[in-house]
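User: For my dataset I need records formatted as: sequence, then structure tokens, nothing else. Please produce one.
Assistant:
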Amino acid sequence: MMALETRAEHACFGGRMGFYRHDAEQTGTPMSFAVYLPPAAERGPVPALYYLAGLTCTEETFMIKAGAQRLAAAHGLALVAPDTSPRGLGYPDEDAAYDFGTGAGFYIDANAEPWARGYRMFSYVNDELPALIEAHFPVSPHKRGVFGHSMGGHGALVSALRLPERWASVSAFAPICNPSAVPWGEKAFSGYLGPDRDAWKAWDAAELMRSHPRSDTILVDQGLSDQFLERELHPEALEAAASASGQALQLRRHAGYDHSYWFIQSFVADHLAHHAQRLTDG
């Protein structure tokens, strides 16, 4: 069994909130992650809902700011939150900007040097981390959901569209919907993937949705006062892709809400209910 370091554990809504670290093969670095186990996990394996955070965030951000543990306890869902990138690889300019390198792994597998040697967050989140979680915690290997925010919303959508057999449910808060066409994505994809824009399509949710629609409904929430809406997020690209492919998409726009965790707190209950409907019996 893969080694696991326990950093801290706390009682929370009748369950357990834990923070952990392990040596990851995909990144070649120690990786940190958080797990909330609901009270139902004491009686047997429970479904696991993975949350992918946004730029500059860590494995702690969602668990501290979203207020989701009470809801997860009621639904009988485990929550899993990984860090947003490898840390400490020492690549040139790795820490030079908030939107590339440390804290900005974009949940893709890089193929440009030197990033290809460690920035493999797609394989980490989709393969290595679930295997680790299922080996160490009472969660079901057959009932996984994924959601995320901003860069993490992009990661959740790409993961679920590329690997529908692995993820039974998916949703996103204010995702980067069409990264190939916005500054955040162009910067990250150029650095991690190189200049071939055709190769970027495999990591672009809007492009994937056109050719790889899922059989279930995807839930997306977007605030209309989001400071990144027009420049970086482009939810209309998802709507066009869903229309072209027949993907069932519930895209909800909310007046007055911005890009912060106040927005996520306001609608996280709907997202956990969305996933519980797919992952549990109730």
